[in-house]
UniProtKB/TrEMBL annotation:
Positions of the catalytic residues: 137
GO molecular function: metal ion binding; peptide deformylase activity
Family, as annotated: Belongs to the polypeptide deformylase family.
Keyword Hydrolase in annotation: yes
Pfam families: Pep_deformylase
Catalytic activity: N-terminal N-formyl-L-methionyl-[peptide] + H2O = N-terminal L-methionyl-[peptide] + formate
Keywords: Hydrolase, Iron, Metal-binding, Protein biosynthesis
InterPro entries: Peptide_deformylase (IPR023635), Peptide_deformylase_sf (IPR036821)
Protein name: Peptide deformylase
BP GO terms, sorted: translation
UniProt: Fe cation binding residues: 94, 136, 140
Cofactor(s) this protein cannot do without: Fe(2+)
Length: 186
């Protein structure tokens, strides 16, 4: 089932997601829907908060990128970054912030402890686009968006687009859940 994506300024995107204690049929269905929703939106990663579930779960599929064509789709549950090294700057975008891109500096290599789709604990080192995509999605689990990591000068350049999205001006080729600020009642 294709789930609508929660959009920038929705409160759920700013909350720290809760750890999963296991997998049941509901979580298995959520994982399947997340993959379907991510692919429908032509994304390479999706975190559960982006589809309205505040749990520490994300999916990745980089196989649409030439250098990662043989990389299997991943389910990552309760991730914990153990170590980082190196550094690089790359342009990022986000399904929750349609049409907005910006340069973000992140560690180039990460060592990650997580549980897979069978809830088995894994520890693995990631580099390149895998490391970047994992860090981007893990940020979602911590209530952080890529625009929060941009330099102030760069963020000012996209502020109008962010304001437009927050006010409901959204141009997305996939279903979204727009979030509108409620007028303060005084």
């Amino acid at each position: 089932m294709i789930l609508p994506i929660n959009i920038y300024s929705d409160d759920i995107l700013r909350q720290k997601a809760k750890p999963l204690k296991g997998i049941d049929s509901t979580i298995e269905a959520l994982i399947a829907s997340m993959f379907e929703s991510m692919r429908n939106a032509e994304g390479i990663g999706l975190a559960a908060p982006q589809v309205g579930h505040s749990v520490r779960l994300l999916v990745l599929d980089l196989s649409c990128i030439d250098n990662y064509a043989n990389e299997k789709p991943m389910v990552v549950i309760n991730p914990h970054i153990l170590a980082v090294s190196g550094c690089n700057v790359m342009e990022e975008g986000c399904l929750s912030i349609p049409g907005v891109n910006g340069d973000v500096e992140r560690p180039a290599v990460i060592s990650l402890k997580y549980r897979d789709e069978h809830f088995l604990e894994r520890t693995r080192e990631f580099s390149g686009m895998l490391a970047r995509a994992l860090q981007h999605e893990i940020d979602h689990l911590d209530g952080t968006l890529f625009v929060d990591r941009m330099e102030k000068r760069s963020r000012k350049k996209i502020q109008k687009e962010l304001t437009d999205i927050a006010s409901g001006i959204i141009d997305a080729e996939y279903p979204v859940v727009p979030f509108f600020h409620k007028a303060s009642q005084g």
